[in-house]
Amino acid sequence: MTYRALDEKTVLDYVRSRPDLKQGFSDTTALSAGEIGDGNLNLVFIVRNSKNPRESAVIKQALPYLRVAGDSWPLTRERMRFEAQALLLYNQLTPGLSPKVYDYDEEMSLVGMENLADCEVMRKPLVERQRFPDFVEHISTFLATILFKTSDLYLSGVDKKTLQATYVNPHLCKIQEDFVFTNPYQESPENNWNAEIDAEVQAVRSNAPLKLAIADLKEKYMTQAQALIHSDLHTGSIMVNAQDTRVIDPEFSFFGPMGYDVGALLSNLVLNFGSHYAHTPDPAEREVYQEYLLDLIGGVWEGFAAKFEQLWIEHHSGELVPDAYWKFPGGDTAFATFRRQYMRRLLQDTAGLGACESLRRMMGIVSVWDITSIQDQKLRAVAERFVIRVSSRWIMERASFDHIEDLLGIVREEASAVVIA
Questions:
Q1: C-alpha span between 129 and 272 (Å, rounded)
Q2: What domains can be seen in the chain, in order of their start residue?
Q3: Contact 111, 101 (CB under 8 A)
Q4: Element (H, E) at 397
Q5: What is the pTM of this model?
Q6: How do residues 261-295 score in pLDDT, each as one tens digit?
């Protein structure tokens, strides 16, 4: 089938024409569709059987341009291949923590997948101060398993490089390289920020030590192919309810630094923490929920680190340091030292790379709903200044970090200095 962008009418005929999609509906004459894309990259439809709404599927199609910027910004449609193959791998390694894939059509740049009707994108319920008792367990399992089992700690060199070759994703990497690590910190026409924080934006752009650090982190993002990373893993790419956690939208996936995924998630929880200076006016209520967010940040890192190291102890046959490497007197102690050093570097990468993700949201092309939903621009600026301060310190002080409490301590220090007029 020749590529064409679908709409709410033509997507119905498309579903009827695809056996793997059609079989999910008992009556394809009663299908209806709605477009729910967030407007940044793709078309996203939910197709339902109007006679039985529980029969549904999500149809996601890549457009040949960056949707948020318009057709003046061409973009390869191959990104849908990366999403489909990443989701299939997630389903294999961490079943139940991402949507099931029903169909992938390379020519149409389209994937059909499970509709997570009982879940919602995590950003909004966090703004509403909801709690998710199983989230730490689920997301730490996802991160530890995917990052470890696609790394040189687990795979042979041939297997790792063979898998890596299927995730060469230059066009979407270029977007992240520009929009996360470069353009927000210089004059660039697509940048957008709250006029109330103009002084802070200009200060960041003229801060030579900070910009040197960000350049070092960009080099790490571009050159350190540690594992298959989602590369856009924030609270807008996770769907949740009280019992369920699902990772979605891995179209940016490629082999990069592990700390980017962990850090993007943790820094987005910091973004949400800051947003409550506006979303939660009552100081006591705000403090209680912000402490919950700090518990999430600490719990995600600690759960991830413990599970990652346990996987490593149980499966240390990868190319980097196989089991035989430690077969000498004192080898167990040396292996433990290597693991400890590795995890410390990973924590530092998590802080620095994650902070670039949150910092760019304050002054780049794409912000986050947690912040943009604040109508009062002065209150929004309170949140944004807090995020800028925390992010800048995570970047600049990362070399001294030994424990997750070092990151949390900065959040608490900057929170104690917030003044709401």
A1: 10
A2: 10-15+30-113 (3.30.200.20), 120-416 (3.90.1200.10)
A3: yes
A4: helix 377-397
A5: 0.95
A6: 999 999 999 999 999 999 999 999 999 999 999 99
